[in-house]
Amino acid sequence: MPGIIVGVDGSGHSQRALGWAVREAAIRHAPLTVLTVHEAVARYYRGTAMDPDAPVRTAEARKAAEDETDKALAGLEGSRPESVVVTAVRGFPVEELIKAASDADMIVLGSRGAGGFARLLMGSVASQVAQHAQCPVLIVPPEDRS
């Protein structure tokens, strides 16, 4: 997916990242892909555990991401991104973000997501994506860094 990829998970950190990505895509006249990952549960040995509700949960995650994206776009003045696509997948966040950004110009993430521990300066997903992505990664810091 060329252009800018932004990972969202409903957290305040990802909402800030989404706002930044929307503005940056508008400035660059670039396509924007908003990606949310319904996290799969890993099996003990390999792969993912069966989850009969996975399609419903993935659809709910997509709807939430669409709502966040609409809100971010509504606050935009002036130019707009070339295009905006909202995608939801089931999988492991780091793997899905890296795969989606394989031919992207940039990936944007919040410094921490919905999970994790408040004491961490940077979330594990942001850290892993920053280490393994094939494109530049921008990590948007929290508004209040105190």
Give an account of the 3D structure.
Helices cover 38% and strands 21% of the residues. With 146 residues, the chain is α/β, with parallel strands linked by helices. It has 2 domains: 26-91, no CATH class; 94-146, HUPs (Rossmann fold). The protein has a 5-stranded parallel beta sheet, with helices on both faces. α1 crosses α2.
Whole-number count of domains: 2
Regarding quaternary structure, how should these chains be classified? single chain
Count of alpha/pi helices: 4
Q: Could you say which overall geometry the principal axes of the C-alpha atoms support?
A: globular
Percentage of residues in DSSP E strands: 15-25%
Summarize the amount of helix as a percent range: 25-40%
Point out poorly predicted stretches.
116-121
Give me the strand/helix succession.
EHEHEHEHE
**Roughly what is the average pLDDT, rounded to an integer?**
85
